[in-house]
Every structure is written in C-alpha cells, then in structure tokens.
Amino acid sequence: MQVSIIGLLVVGVLLLVGRMWGGGIIVALFASLTFGSTAFAILTALGGSSPQIYTLLVAIMFLSVLVARGGVHAYCRAFLTHQVSWYVALLMLYAIVGSVVLPRLFAGETTVFVTASAADASSVTAIGRGMIETTLGPVSGNISQTAYFCLSLLSFFAVTAYLDSRSNLTPARDAFFAFAIFTALFGALDLLFKLIGVVDVFEFLRTATYSMSTNHSEHGFWRIAGGFPEASAYSMSGLAGLAFSFTYWRLTGNRLALVLAVVICLLLLLSTSSTAYVGLLVLFTVAGIRAVVEVATDRITRSSLAILSSVAVGVTAIAFLAVANASVFNAIAELFDSMLLNKATSASAVERGYWNAKSLDGFTATYGLGIGIGSSRASSLLVAYVSQLGLPGLILIGPILLSAIWWPIEHGPNRDSGCELVALGRAASASAFAWLLGLSISAGNADLGVYFFASLAVVVTCRFRLLSFLEVRSRNAETGRDIAMSW
C-alpha cells in the first residue's frame, strides 16, 4: 500500500474545518465527497485501487461512534426506530454473499466487461477504454467494488447513530451546506483558472490512479470538473447541491441557500455536461410544476412567485437576444446539438448500449439472481444494479428508495413558516433524488454512493423526530399543555 501524503493532509484539514464549523466529523465527511479525485492511498494488492478520502472518513465516523459511550446501543436503536435499517442490512448481506457465490456459481454462463488487468488476455475481446469482454468468473472487482458498496451502506448506520447522540440536527444541516459550498467553490475556481490559462488548478489534489478528463473543452466552452476526475461526476455533485440549496431556501428563505442555488445552477449550465443538462431539465420541470400548482391552488408563496418571475425574465431576455443578434447562440446551439441531440448516435453511445445489452443478458443467464457486485461494467446505474444484484436486490432497494425520496408529512408543525426540521428533511430528500438522477444518467456501477445513504440517514432521522414531536404534542394537547418544536 502506498500512502498519499496529500490525501491524508486533506483529511486532516477537513476534520479541522468540521471542528471549527461546529459540525464535527459529519461536516468533514460531506465536504470530502466533493474531492472526487483525491485518494488517501493506493492499494497495490487490489490492482492499484485508490480509495478516495471519504472512505477513510466513513470508517473514522463508524468506529468513533462505535467506541463512544452508548455507541453499540445507538447502532441497535437504528433497527428499532428506522425500519429501513433492516433493508439496508439485508442488502449488504446479499451483496457480500452474491459477490463471492454468484460469479462462481454461474461461471462461464454469460459474458461480462471488466478491466484489462482482470482477466486472461487469451480469452477476451478488446472493446476499448481499457475494458475487455470475457466470460463470467471471479475478478478483483468483486472485492473492491463490494467493499465500496458496503461502505456506502455502512455510512447510513454511521450517520444515523451519530445523529442519534445529538440533541439537534444542526450538524447535519451544516454538512449539507458544506457540501454545496465546496461544490460551488471548486466549480467556480476551476472555471476561473481555465479562463485565465491555468488548465487544471486542482492537479495537486488528484492523487487517485484512475484516468482524469479535466482539461477538455466543447466548442470553445471549458468543461467544469471541479474536484472530480471529469465533468459528469461534478455535475452529479452539483445537481445534489442545487436540489438541497433550492429546497432549503424555499422552505426557510435562507439567503445563503439561495446564493448557493444560483451559483451552482450557473456552473451546471456552463459545465458542458449532458448529465448536468438532462438533470437540470428534470429539476426545472419539477420546480416549475410545483410553482404552477401552488399558484393554481391559491397557495402562493414568495418563492413560487420568484421562480415564475425568473422564468419569465429569462425567456424574455433570451428572445430579445435571439432577435437582436442570432449569431450569439450559434456556439450554444452547436454545443447543445453535440452534447444532447447527437450524443445518442455517437460511437461511445453505441459502445455503452452494447455494454448494457450484455449486462442485461447476465440477469437472464443467472435466473434473476445477478452476477455479483463488481463482476461486470455497464453504462447505466439501473442496468448495473439489475445485472449485478438481480431481483433480490431490486426487492430490497425499493423500500430504501421510497424512504429517501418520499416525504409523507405535509402537515407538520409550521410547515409554511420555516420549521427547520421539516426544511432539513425535505431538502435532504430532494438532494437524494437529484443524486439518484445524476447517477441514473451517467453512472456505470451499482453503488448508490455514500452521499445517497448519508442523505437517507438524515431524512429518516428528521422524519422520526418530527413524528415523535407530533405524537407528544397530541398527547399534551389533551391536558392543555404545549411544547416548543426542537429540531
């Protein structure tokens, strides 16, 4: 194992930032997720795998909660208070067992795509991009990818138990803000320095061994990668940060959240990433429909008026520019055409389509059980998940997704007057949805990521505390007593 001094220094700085911020290790963890190309070590025993710094922080959080007073009870309470904990645990168990058993049980039954170093070169067909097609069998990815997958699931328990020991959820709110701030800061600095001639200002932070694509441009527009290895990964982070900031601003009127939402939105528009553009289209559509519904049902809020006014001003400005000088939009039109309209017919799209088709063959060849985590590469989160975890994985992930993106408590206390608990829960839920949206567009493996499961932990914790408060208030109402909302 080769230790990265830069990676360890970044971990130390983030822990210090979290302590100064007042949120502790959870702030450091969320901030570390924006360092998408910074590894703390290179594991030569696993083919040069380079775990990112967030993996170290998840391990530190999990162990620190475990050894703390009442830590074991905190983990046990997660199963008693949050039903989704059982699904997460069962999913972890199936992933571990499946990665060991399934590639051996169905060895040779189908073909899969792995990295060139993971198979015998005499029995493969090269397909480019360092990937090869070979028959199903055990590979090193079964170990490394399953480890990452389980680490993401463990982050749910770590964050849940961590928040269980806190009297309020201020650290969780600060963690999301830290994530959004670092996302905006890295994106802005990356773009600014590229415009003045510095191609990759964050090169010294890129200690991971996988390939980087940080100095590319599309039709004269620089691609924004921030702290990630390429633009689509930055876009997933940006979509999640935008969803949290925008939702939190709508529910609380927080000015910092509004500024972050505007800045991240502009960076995504300038990122030249198809992931960003498709994601923004979906998020804009959802926000627009919600604003129209509020106006139509006489539940007009200041934020809904601001959204509709911004859309009207933006459309008017674009129309004016188009009439005054049509050439202004030529470069933008070419960019849109290459990144969205013609992207599906490109050579890379045809190649990724072939990966997905062969991955789905693995689902049928294993009678719906899956080929195991890390056994193959796909070009879609859904396809990768179905092919690797099969029908049992789909059954287990359903309640998990529902718990993350569905906020059933619409009539909680002070829901329209900025209740912090409701605002944090719904903003975290929106952020988890946006993260899944980004993954579904450009991810190639079955791991939903630490960010999703950490957000899930915040959502279910907010929901549990809000329901507990409503229950206590209902009991006290019978005696004429009332209690103040504490988040």
Please give a quick description of this structure.
The protein has 487 residues and is mostly helical. It contains 16 helices and 7 strands.
Strand content: under 5%
Helix share, percent: 55-70%
**Approximate shape:** globular
How many helices in DSSP terms? Answer: 16
Low-confidence stretches: 118-128, 411-418
Domains (count): 1
* Strand arrangement, major sheet: 3-5-4
Radius of gyration: 23 Å
Number of strands: 7
The H/E string reads EHHEHHHEEEHHEEHHHHHHHHH
Structural class: mainly alpha
Q: State the separation between the terminal residues, measured CA to CA.
A: 43 Å
Mean pLDDT: 81
Largest sheet properties: 3 strands, antiparallel
Salient structural properties:
two-stranded antiparallel sheet, 487 residues, mainly alpha, three-stranded antiparallel sheet
Give a verbal description of the structure.
Helices cover 65% and strands 4% of the residues. The chain is mostly helical and 487 residues long. The strands form 3 sheets. A 3-stranded antiparallel β-sheet has the order 3-5-4. Strands 1-2 form a two-stranded antiparallel ribbon. The protein has a two-stranded antiparallel ribbon with strand order 6-7.
